[in-house]
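Box 3.1. Reading complex inputs
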Amino acid sequence: MKISYKGDYAIKALVLLSTKYDPNNVDSYCQLSEISKTQDIPLKFLEQILLILRNAGYIRSRRGANGGYALAKAPATITLGEIIRLTDGSTAPIACVSKSCYQYCNFEKKCVLKPIWEEVREKISDVIDNITFFDLSMKQKVIDETVQNKEMYFI
Amino acid sequence: MKISYKGDYAIKALVLLSTKYDPNNVDSYCQLSEISKTQDIPLKFLEQILLILRNAGYIRSRRGANGGYALAKAPATITLGEIIRLTDGSTAPIACVSKSCYQYCNFEKKCVLKPIWEEVREKISDVIDNITFFDLSMKQKVIDETVQNKEMYFI
DNA sequence: TACTTTGTCTATCAACATAGTAGACAATAT
DNA sequence: ATATTGTCTACTATGTTGATAGACAAAGTA
């Protein structure tokens, strides 16, 4: 599994939206330009990525003044793994052991490698499918507070 | 970590050479054409891959009639991980957590993702760095015998 | 010696993926 | 009306992958 810039950017955008997630305030949107600036993501590239996330139902958007993007579902219901698969495709090391993009291979039944690739696939899934954007947003908030405190010492 | 055809072919060639490894018979070489046919690898592509393996010291070769390739070291001393890194580069999910191809990232010190990518990297290494071509060749021999026995039942 | 067999090395190439950029358009708020 | 903000499609530069081609070098054999 390699994380592309597209995937990395998608995750960072979702982490930001997760820290701002508030089901009681449905009219709060985070703008493209803000995400682009704070996460250091090329604006027009980010635009395309947010479109993918919106079309997949993870975020919703509003046009016009005071428009922007917001999470469409609770952060705890979105796993890191599903976002990676959405933006970067299969997380398996090779197509013959992929659940999402399986491709048949002639060697399959007498292959010494297949069980190994399956093990790698499972180990990766164990990590990324058990982390939600709620987990990430909580950790991000802690980091943000720590950085803010450190900066205050300099005043 | 994605295994490319190049990596897959390199591993399959080395598994074959490992099953034929015999330190007592230094004059036994396995020919390019045989590896190509039995492993279903395009001959000219395989040639380039074997060149990489030879230049890295994993195999040795002999030209001319009865020439070919043979392992240059004991299968037990070659891990799956080092061959993957040789042919496909870093096995880390992202450059900022790669040991072999590390690249600095501005976010590093306040990144919620880095520890996760490190965990993924470690889980992958746990698998591929603890498997040697001796292990693979032993399993391959068992498979070959089983397949042969099955075929004999049809006679 | 001449010839066949086998590996060596470098160049080239088509197809695809990645990481963007550009610009016309649509909706919303004031 | 107008400014603001997201939408959508097209395009492009660059690199990687998975090969293919062909001239060359060495080793064995008649």
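In summary: The mean pLDDT of chain B is 93.
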